[in-house]
Write a structure and sequence with these properties.
Length: 481
């Protein structure tokens, strides 16, 4: 039976006013399993007005009170962890083991982290001089919007809504129409804990309708967005008309820089993960592997051998390491790049095929993890964000050379550097134009740190202090001494 997802507006689960829906597919089977509201301007405006109405009371609560509500949500998510992991895996095609290990625990941590982090938050500070006394007051913005993508649905939704809510804003959230299910379950949890109506509203639909209306709505004060650079650019240009605050987390083409003096086994193990976790559909995944030419042949053999052993399978199977591609259009996009490899004079070392599956998954969208060498620096495969299971190999022979190579992209999200010479690794890190750089590790996150890309990967930062600052406004009240 096809399940019907609802919007969550003003504390109620509601159908879209037009009664229009979008099909939601299970990537592992290629079959429709639910319908999500195809909301329009009227639905979006209703969500904004509910958020506006809830703001005066919610913003006057103490951080402690707001945090108590949010911790209740976290504890309900924890109770429902196993179900939520199943739903996330069904919606995205990721292995259930990954949803259990990463997506749901991190969603819970987003709540507990911001709750702890804001314990000692003060909403004012002062500057005194011989001429004046300045009282600086921090206040919530009002109604803010969070627009999120399909690769880490609940993880990224909670990463944005929690700091927004804890700072006293009310929220209109728009999950990806491709993977809306765990947001719907979060809405049910909000009802279960009696979150005051209008504080959080979850409005489903396409970017073209709901996303656009959010972007030009005069009562929305800020948008926190994660998604593609092209979409980020559209939001940037449209939102400027109403002078919204923006935090845009966008694409990446992340280098992994592998020096010959690295801890080889640790590097190999982690680079496999950084390349292919979530089928390569994490904005932080390594997609360009830059290898010291002195170890290139050895690395190539060892890496390809390991890649060929990655267990591709039904995401429901706990042994599966690598699942399906999240949507058919994205599957087509990745195949387009696979077809380009030959034309761009690259050679496929491993993978490069659609993976034919049996039984339940025979119509699913599976692509083998793919490793390519021999492509030019300016090839599309080395320039474009593919956001899938394709990595390219390139060699380097000097520190300056690899820095140049790493920076030869319009993106600047993340990079990893592998070397046991920490002063060299730090020297290189300083010269790499990326917002997040990992030395001898990957995806190790301290949520207090600023998170976000440089160049066309990011505009504004998330995390820790930056998230709190983003979701507040400051006012200076000056009295002459
Ligand atoms: O993302 P979109 P798409 C990259 C990746 C991928 C490409 C396109 O390369 O192939 O982006 O993916 C909403 N106004 N990433 O098209 O469109 C949309 O409904 C306002 C990188 O699926 O950016 C969804 O909720 N909102 C990435 C959200 O934006 C709009 C994660 C993201 O969708 C909108 C995902 C509009 N005009 C894709 N159009 C990362 N860096 O994490 C769409 N949306």
């Amino acid at each position: 039976m096809i399940e019907v997802i609802k919007n969550y507006v003003n504390g109620e689960l509601t159908a879209p006013s037009s009664n229009n829906y979008i099909d939601v597919f299970e990537p592992a089977t290629g079959k429709i399993y639910s319908h999500v509201p195809n909301s329009d301007d009227k639905d979006t405006d209703f969500a904004v007005s509910a958020a506006k109405k809830a703001f005066p009371v919610w913003s006057k609560h103490s951080i402690k009170t707001r945090s108590n509500y949010l911790l209740k949500l976290a504890s309900e998510i924890k109770k429902d962890s196993e179900d939520l992991a199943f739903y996330e895996s069904r919606d995205t095609g990721k292995p259930i083991s990954l949803a259990r290990r990463l997506d749901i625990p991190r969603a819970i941590e987003n709540f507990t982290f911001f709750s702890d982090y804001t314990q000692n938050f003060t909403d004012y500070f002062t500057f005194e001089s011989k001429d004046s006394k300045n009282h600086i007051q921090k206040s919530p913005l009002g109604v803010v919007a969070c627009i999120t993508p399909w690769n880490l649905p609940l993880y990224l939704l909670t990463w944005k809504i929690v700091p927004a809510l804890i700072m006293g804003n009310t929220v209109v959230a728009k999950p990806s129409e491709i993977t809306p299910y765990t947001a719907f379950k979060l809405a049910e949890i909000c009802k279960r804990i009696n979150l005051p109506p209008g504080v959080l509203n979850i409005i489903n639909g396409s970017g073209d309708k709901v996303g656009k209306r959010i972007t030009n709505h005069p009562d929305i004060k800020a948008i926190s967005f994660t998604g593609g650079t092209e979409t980020g650019g559209k939001i940037f240009s449209k939102a400027s008309r109403t002078f919204k605050k923006l935090a845009l987390e966008m694409g990446g083409k992340n280098p992994a820089i592998i020096f010959e003096d690295c801890n080889y086994d640790q590097m190999l193990e982690t680079v496999i993960k950084s390349s292919f976790t979530n089928q390569g559909q994490i904005c932080l995944c390594s997609s360009r592997l830059l290898i010291d030419e002195s170890i290139y042949e050895k690395f190539k053999i060892d890496f390809c051998e390991r890649v060929s052993k990655i267990r591709i399978g039904d995401p429901n199977d706990t042994e599966t390491q690598f699942g399906a591609i999240t949507s058919k259009p994205h599957f087509d996009k990745i195949n387009h790049y696979i077809n380009l490899i030959d034309k761009e004079n690259g050679s496929i070392l491993v993978g490069g095929n659609i993976k034919k599956m049996d039984n339940r998954c025979e119509k699913g969208w599976f692509i083998e993890p793919t490793v390519v060498e021999g492509l030019g620096i300016d090839s599309q495969l080395n320039k474009d964000e593919i956001f899938g299971p394709i990595v390219t190999l390139q060699t380097f022979s000097s520190e300056e050379g690899v820095i140049k190579l790493a920076n030869k992209t319009k993106y600047g999200l993340s990079a990893t550097i592998w070397s046991e010479d920490i002063s060299k690794a730090n020297r290189v890190a300083e010269k790499i134009d990326s917002g997040v750089i990992w030395i001898n590790c990957w995806m190790v996150r301290d949520l207090r740190t600023p998170f976000g890309g440089l160049k066309q990967s990011g505009y504004g930062k998330e995390g820790g202090e930056d998230a709190l600052r983003f979701f507040t406004e400051q006012k200076n009240i000056c009295i002459q001494s």
